[in-house]
Write a structure and sequence with these properties.
By secondary structure, this protein is an all-alpha fold. It has 9 helices and no strands. Helix 6 packs across helix 9.
């Protein structure tokens, strides 16, 4: 919950080891949960341009989440689908974002399918509570949660 310290430590770590993928992954997540979505896209974009192979899954998911929070729902879905195609696990957070993004795009049928999949696969997983604790500003977690609720997901 100490977002300022997290940013300071992340900056220091990147200065010490600017190419370390573990540090860069944590930095992407710290930027994401600080609501610095454009910075996530810039950092992951630089990394993507310098690689011949796909970005590691954490980067792909952080990037896709950032697109969602910037209102780029189609790019968000495309990013998550690409990550899954590259072998990323299909987990509750990915399904939550895809469900909300489809709902925001007006693809109600697909959003409802994903809500059903979420309920049947992870009936007790409360991504809403997790995201409320992770984001510095609950406006960002609410953006995701409201999309999920509109898609038909209900917390147990």
């Amino acid at each position: 919950g100490d977002y300022v310290a997290a940013m300071e430590w992340s900056k220091r770590a990147k200065e010490l080891a600017p190419e370390d993928p573990n540090i860069l992954e944590f930095d992407a997540l710290i930027l994401l949960y600080n609501g610095m979505f454009q910075a996530v896209l810039e950092e992951t974009g630089k990394l993507s341009e310098s690689r011949k192979d796909p970005l590691p899954f954490v980067f792909q998911n952080a990037r896709s989440s950032a697109f969602f929070h910037l209102g780029e729902y189609k790019l968000s879905i495309e990013g998550f689908v690409a990550a899954i195609s590259d072998g990323a696990p299909l987990g509750p957070i990915t399904v939550a974002y895809m469900m909300a993004a489809h709902e925001k795009l007006g693809d109600t049928e697909r959003a409802e399918e994903l809500a059903s999949q979420y309920r049947s696969t992870w009936p007790n997983h409360r991504v809403d509570l997790v995201k409320k604790r992770l984001f510095k500003n609950t406006v960002h977690s609410d953006q995701l949660i409201n999309g999920m609720l509109a898609a038909g997901w209900k917390p147990d």
